[in-house]
Amino acid sequence: MEHKSQALLHRRGFIQRLAKHIGVSVLLIIFSLGVGVAGYHFLADFTWIDSFLNASMILGGMGEVGELTSNGAKIFAAFYALFAGIVFIALGGILIAPIFHRMLHILHVESEGKHKKLDT
Q1: Residues 8, 11, 13, CA angle at the centre, nearest 5°?
Q2: Which of 17, 91, 106, 114 places its Cα 20 to 30 Å from the Cα of 83?
């Protein structure tokens, strides 16, 4: 990240930064989906496909599909739902951060330019 006193990052550098953030987001989604699939498969005794479906639905905010019969599976599902909500918020922050930073940097550069013109 460039300091506020540095020049605005060129467009290519910004796109590379944005691509890194998207990459981190994809890795976080894959990790979260893997945790959910494994949990549903081993704790709820769902098939791999049903586990994938349930984990995807929870991460997508739609809710569960299969019926949970054991207490362990229900506890896992509750914590996984909380985890999925936190992941959703984190993903929003990860994806918006470079855009928000660039906007603030542009506003600061414009503000600095106006102050320098007034001072001279």
Answers
A1: 85
A2: 17
- Dump pLDDT digits (tens) for 24-59: 999 999 999 999 999 999 999 999 999 999 999 999
Q: State if pTM tops 0.70.
A: yes
Structure tokens at 80: 């996984």
State how far Cα 30 lies from the chain centre. Answer: 11
CA torsion sign, 99 to 102 to 104 to 110?
negative
DSSP state of 45: -
Containing H/E element for 52? helix 48-59
**Among 30-34, 59-63, 115-119, the least confident range:** 115-119
Structure tokens at 119: 């001072």
8 A C-beta contact, residue 83 and residue 35: yes
**Could you say which DSSP state residue 68 is in?**
P
